[in-house]
Every structure is written in C-alpha cells, then in structure tokens.
User: Which sequence fits this backbone?
C-alpha cells in the first residue's frame, strides 16, 4: 500500500508538473502567434504602423520578420500613394488656376477676347492634356496593359531623327551637341513611337539641365547582345538623394528650376516604364569625369 500510495502521489505530482510546464511552454509558444494575430487585425483596420517583436531564430522568427517587411512595404506604398495624389492635385491645380484667372479677366473685360488670349488658354489646355496623358500611360504600364506596336526597328536612324529636333534649342543655348553612332545596324523589336518618346524624354532632361555653353553627347554602341544608347550632359552632378529617387514620379532634385522649365517630374518615370516594357533597362548616374549619364539598354534582334 505504501508503494502504491507513493507511486500514485508521484504520478499525480509528475502529472501536475507536466501540465504546468506544458501550460507555460504553450503560452511562450503561442505569444508570438497572438501578437502576430493582433498586429494583423490592426493592420486590417488601416493601422499600417504595426510591427511585431522578433526573438531568436526559427520559423516563428522568420514569420515575424516577413510580417514586418510586408507591413513596411505597405506603409511605404501608402505614403507614396498619398504623396502622388497630392502632387497630381498640385500639378492640375496650377494650370486650372491660370485658366480660371484668364477666363474671369475676359469675362470682366480686363482682357479682350482675341487670338492671343485664346492661344494662351489653348496652351494651358495642352499642358493639362499632356499631364493627363502621362498619368494614363503610367497607369497602363503599372497594370501591364500598355499596348505596344512592336516591329523590327533600326535604332540609329530613329535616334538621329529625334536628335535633329533639338538642334535649334542647342544653338540658342550655345550647347555643343555631338553624336557617336557606330555604323552597324542596331535592329530591335520595338514600338517606334514609344521608343521615340523615351529618347525625346531623355533629350529634354539633358537640355533642361545642361548650362549655356555646355555639352550633350549621344553614343550608340553594341554591348554583348544588347544595344546601349548613352546620353551624356555636362550639367551639375546629382546628389545621393536625387540618385535614389531619380525615376520616382513627380520627384524633382531641383524643384524651382524644374518647375520653371515646365517639367512635371514624370518624364524619366515614363521613360523607364517604356524601357521595361521593351524588356530593356534605363539607368542614370553621375559621370566620373563630371556631368550626368543616362543609359538605355535594349536587346538586339537575334541576340538570344
């Protein structure tokens, strides 16, 4: 009986200790899950600042880190969306305000209803139309629904054709415009008009930031199985912050000058999206010897 009692009490005590330890360990294991569930519920209610404390290693720690990365990405995306909405409203408000002021002046008899006033109103309308079209293009590219009419295109003559349009501006600013286009044929599978738009946006950017008496150089060359179009301008080099946000929408490294020059901060964003739609790349960097260099890389036909 003594042995049986001792065995019974030992089993009872061991069982109680086991249950207690099981409850403690279960609480320790379930706490990260509860914290993660609580944070996820708050995120579903719109609080994107939620983060969970990650301890140790293992699957639960990896899950916590993944959750924190996802929350940070969502918060960054929400911040960019709010900033872009504010920028769009600002860009639309300026030409609309000018139009409204001009129309009110015409109604009050301050300005006569003549061709000059109509031309000013027309130009403001063109500014709005270009901005809306740029936004529509970016929206289509983001959704993967941008239609391209791709054909076999020689990049060299297309590039020269676009560059010729900027020759009068280079003469006015006393800018030295040079080209170094290899005699080879550079055939790419591309939408000519979209490709022309990329080069045009890059040239406009170069013209905007190249000082009077400066230099713009356009180089076209073969790099392995790709064709590389380089557009160099002798303008001021970009800061680290500008380089980090170079292709973001509405971003301006020099807001005052860019706004005065008529830019909306969408040209480089559109150029990169169009380059990616052609399975290419568009990069921008400071040139080691001074100035800024943009490089458009596209796959050559038959290179794969």
Assistant:
């Amino acid at each position: 009986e003594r042995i049986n009692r001792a065995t019974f009490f030992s089993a009872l005590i061991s069982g109680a200790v086991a249950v207690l330890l099981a409850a403690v360990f279960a609480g320790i294991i379930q706490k990260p899950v509860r914290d993660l569930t609580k944070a996820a519920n708050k995120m579903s209610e719109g609080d994107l600042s939620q983060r969970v404390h990650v301890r140790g290693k293992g699957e639960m720690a990896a899950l916590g880190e993944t959750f924190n990365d996802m929350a940070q990405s969502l918060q960054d995306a929400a911040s960019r969306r709010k900033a872009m909405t504010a920028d769009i409203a600002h860009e639309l408000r300026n030409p609309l305000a000018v139009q409204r002021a001009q129309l009110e002046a015409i109604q009050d008899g301050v300005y006569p209803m003549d061709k000059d006033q109509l031309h000013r109103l027309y130009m403001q309308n063109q500014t709005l139309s270009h901005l809306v079209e740029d936004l529509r293009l970016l929206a289509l590219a983001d959704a993967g629904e941008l239609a391209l009419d791709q054909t076999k295109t020689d990049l060299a003559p297309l590039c020269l054709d676009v560059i010729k349009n900027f020759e009068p501006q280079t003469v006015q600013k006393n800018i030295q415009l040079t080209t170094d286009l290899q005699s080879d044929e550079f055939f790419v599978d591309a939408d000519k008009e979209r490709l022309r738009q990329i080069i045009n946006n890059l040239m406009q950017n170069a013209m905007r930031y190249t000082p009077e008496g400066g230099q713009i150089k356009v180089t076209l060359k073969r790099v392995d199985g790709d064709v590389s179009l380089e557009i160099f301008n002798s303008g001021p080099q970009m800061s680290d912050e500008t380089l980090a946000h170079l292709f973001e929408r509405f971003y301006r490294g020099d807001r005052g000058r860019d706004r005065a020059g008529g830019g909306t901060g969408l040209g480089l964003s559109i150029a990169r999206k169009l380059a990616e739609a052609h399975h290419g790349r568009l990069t921008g960097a400071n040139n080691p010897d001074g100035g800024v260099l943009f490089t458009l890389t596209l796959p050559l036909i038959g290179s794969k």
Observations:
- Residues 256-260 have pLDDT under 50 and may be disordered.
